[in-house]
Specification:
alpha+beta, Four Helix Bundle (Hemerythrin (Met), subunit A), 56% helix
């Protein structure tokens, strides 16, 4: 819902009531359900868009950019941590920790990518980054990579759940290994290398969104990488 005139930030009730505004619903839902404030006769609010729920579009974009920044940070940390554990995987002192440390970092990467899939297919990207933009192309590329490597299956069956259905017995070690291999990887090093261009694409999407909406700081006031 678009905020009422009296609720819009930065203007008194009298100022807002004095504005002539028209509201139109985006025709083919290309804006994924958002409302757009359309100014009439040179209205001072020209170009201000409101996301569904009454949130200014720039604030919405900042939230999404901040979330993308977190994804970049989580994948970067997972990649670095995996690289460290690979170095100690054969050391008897750390073999047990390395085994589960690598599983943990792989799980972090897969769950983070599942979140990205959810976010990018929710309609929010279609609102903020229209087709034809470089960021949209990068998003489509990441989604294809996730589909090709079956990252959602790995996230769901290896980390979010223990089997396809609650009543099924937990996956065996052989079944777990098969899921990883079905993703196209045979070694931990291959996974680490595969994540690198994913991180770069997410950074580019984040940066283009910030540039497009004039965002200079995240909600958490920190840029990763």
């Amino acid at each position: 819902m678009v905020p009422s005139r009296s609720e819009r930030p930065g203007r008194s009730l009298g100022e807002v009531e004095g504005l002539r505004l028209g509201q139109v619903r985006a025709g083919c839902r290309a804006c994924a359900g958002s409302w757009l404030v359309v100014p009439l006769d040179g209205d001072p609010l020209a170009g201000v868009a409101w996301a569904e729920g009454g949130e200014p579009m720039t604030d919405h974009a900042r939230r999404v950019a901040t979330t993308l920044n977190r994804f970049v940070g989580m994948l970067h940390a997972a990649r670095c941590t995996a690289a460290l554990w690979i170095l100690h995987a054969e050391d008897p002192r750390y073999r047990f920790a390395a085994k589960y440390g690598l599983q943990m970092t792989f799980g972090t990467a897969m769950l983070t990518l599942r979140k990205f899939q959810d976010l990018s297919t929710s309609g929010q990207f279609a609102t903020l980054l229209p087709e034809g933009t470089e960021a949209h192309k990068f998003s489509e590329w990441v989604l294809r990579e996730c589909e090709q490597h079956k990252t959602r299956d790995a996230a769901n069956l290896l980390f979010a759940h223990y089997a396809p259905y609650k009543t099924d017995p937990p996956l065996s070690d052989r079944e777990i290994r098969a899921l990883v291999e079905n993703g196209g990887w045979t070694t931990e090093e291959e996974i680490v290398e595969w994540i690198a261009p994913i991180i770069e694409k997410l950074r580019l999407i984040r940066d283009e969104m910030m540039s497009r909406y004039g965002i200079t700081a995240f909600e958490e006031d920190e840029v990763t990488g």
